[in-house]
Write a structure and sequence with these properties.
Elements lengths: L9 H50 L2 H10 L4 H16 L4 E10 L2 E9 L3 H5 L22 H13 L4 E7 L2 E11 L5 E10 L1 H55 L20 H44 L10 H16 L6 E7 L2 H8 L1 H18 L5 E3 L4 E6 L1 H5 L1 H17 L11 E7 L8 H23 L2
Antiparallel strand pairs: 1-2, 1-5, 3-4, 4-5, 6-8, 6-9, 7-8
Helix pairs in contact: 1-6, 9-10
Length: 479
């Protein structure tokens, strides 16, 4: 027996699984670390912006600022607030801090500049975007914003009750911003405070942190995998290889082996003190038991063969007619079961010929039963010679049934005519003995699924036709 070559060994699969576990652990650990660290940083930024928003709202004189917006004139408090915003932006390292007022002008949403915390470079003009002029109180900035943003800001002037904190996209990258409404003592919305910090530093720190965590996880995973593979190699793979080799040698030795003494598995010599040693001992014990079983089976098989041969002889004898050697009524009954099964599965295609011997009683009474038996045998021989490819059954003392199938079924008319012609020849041959001048009535029926539900129905139709044939033959003799 050829040994099957396996593409991948168990060791390969163990290493592969370990590597997949390593990758999975690294990804999961990195993702969890990223989420936890980013959440912590965002919480820190939220706290930072909360302080900025609260301090700024406390420093703003909402009534004075509302008057400045209405008149377009900067008060002393307005100038102090401007200076405070500039210092606040510098102290807290803010990307921006600005006061604006969403307005509706000529049916369109717009955004009025109130005051911005500018750096020295921006106030000088060289740190500003070339397309954006130096903002002043009352300037309309709507052209620099998307219409949807202007509509949102206008709606928030009335609906925003508490400061909101969110990540926003800008031309300068991701930013974490805060928005709050400046209100007077009676609740009137004066303007909107917007401030934010860049997330570029957060992203950089997060990437470095995740890389460090991933590298650390990878190192730990590789060490774990190396230890696991080394342990599995010594405690699992090597013992399994010994068991496999012993089993493979046994398979080669036992293939087509007729000598039970060769059916013994060589002990692999596993001494691990665990389930593998138990497995090895069990396999060796099983091989010894199998050797005993095979020896018993060989003895039993010889007895069974002898019994089967005897049973075949008995069965064959039980299904054969003792006088003619053709099949008997019991054999016909078994065949009828098979035909009924074919009818149920709609695969039936057969016919039946009923043959009833004429003058048998006259032969027996005149010449004795020995001649009567010869008369039956001569008729049986004619039937068998004519229908060579069909089973013939003797179902009564003077009755035979021919089951027409396959070639004989296709040529039934020619064969029946041939048999009748032969009987006419024998009847007219005056030189033959009476028991050699055979005669019989014949009835034929072909299975028809429109009228026949069972094989017995076909047999009965053949039997009726045989009796009609017998009446006709008597009528001819009486003329």
């Amino acid at each position: 027996m050829m040994k099957k070559n396996y593409e991948n060994s168990l060791k390969f699969h163990i290493i592969l699984v370990c590597m997949l576990i390593i990758v999975f652990l690294c990804v999961v650990l990195s993702a969890i670390s990223f989420y936890i660290f980013r959440t912590s940083l965002m919480d820190m930024y939220t706290s930072r912006l909360e302080v900025v928003v609260n301090i700024t709202l406390d420093r703003i004189d909402a009534e004075d600022l509302d008057k400045c917006i209405e008149t377009g004139q900067k008060s002393e408090k307005f100038e102090e607030m401007t200076l405070f915003l500039e210092q606040e932006r510098k102290w807290d390292d803010l990307d921006y801090i600005v006061l604006t007022k969403p307005v509706m002008v000529d049916g369109k949403y717009d955004l009025m500049q109130v005051v911005s915390g500018l750096s020295e470079g921006e106030k000088a003009g060289y740190d500003l975007n070339p397309d954006i002029p130096l903002p002043n109180l009352g300037d309309m900035l709507g052209a620099f914003f998307a219409p949807s943003d202007l509509e949102r800001l206008y709606g928030e002037m009335d609906t925003l009750k508490e400061p909101v904190y969110k990540v926003e996209q800008s031309d300068f990258g991701d930013e974490y911003g805060a928005e709050a409404i400046v209100r007077t003592a009676d609740g009137k919305a004066v303007c909107m405070l917007s401030t934010g910090v860049s997330l570029a530093e957060v992203d950089r720190v997060l990437k470095e942190y995740v890389m460090v965590i991933a590298l650390f996880a990878l190192i730990l995973a590789i060490v774990f995998a190396a230890i696991m593979v080394f342990w599995l190699q010594r405690r699992v793979i090597v013992p399994l290889q010994k068991i496999e080799k012993s089993a493979s040698d046994f398979a080669k030795r036992s293939h087509l082996q007729k000598d039970p003494s060769m059916l013994v598995l060589e002990d692999p010599g596993i001494h691990t003190g665990d389930e593998l040693e138990s497995l090895s001992d069990t396999i060796v014990s099983m091989s010894k038991d199998m050797q005993s079983y095979v020896e018993e089976i060989i003895v039993s098989a010889n007895k069974i063969d002898n019994m089967a041969l005897e049973m075949t002889k008995v069965n064959d004898f039980a299904l054969r007619d003792a006088l003619t050697g053709v099949k008997n009524k019991a054999a016909y009954d078994k065949t009828e079961v098979r035909l009924n099964s074919d009818i149920i599965t709609q695969t039936a295609k057969f016919g039946m010929i009923m043959v009833d011997i004429n003058y048998l009683k006259r032969i027996n009474d005149t010449f004795g039963h020995e001649c009567g038996d010869l008369y039956i045998k001569n008729m049986c021989k004619l039937i068998c010679d004519t229908f060579e490819h069909s089973p013939v059954f003797r179902i009564g003392g003077d009755e035979f049934v021919v089951l027409l199938e396959n070639r004989d079924f296709e040529h039934r008319d020619m064969l029946i005519g041939k048999m009748k012609a032969r009987m006419d020849e024998l009847q007219n041959d005056k030189e033959l003995q009476p028991w050699e001048r055979i005669s019989a009535a014949i009835g034929v029926a072909i299975y028809d699924d429109n009228i026949d539900e069972t094989a017995y129905s076909v047999l009965k139709r053949a039997d009726r036709e045989m009796y009609e044939n017998k009446k006709q033959m008597k009528a001819v003799r009486q003329r």
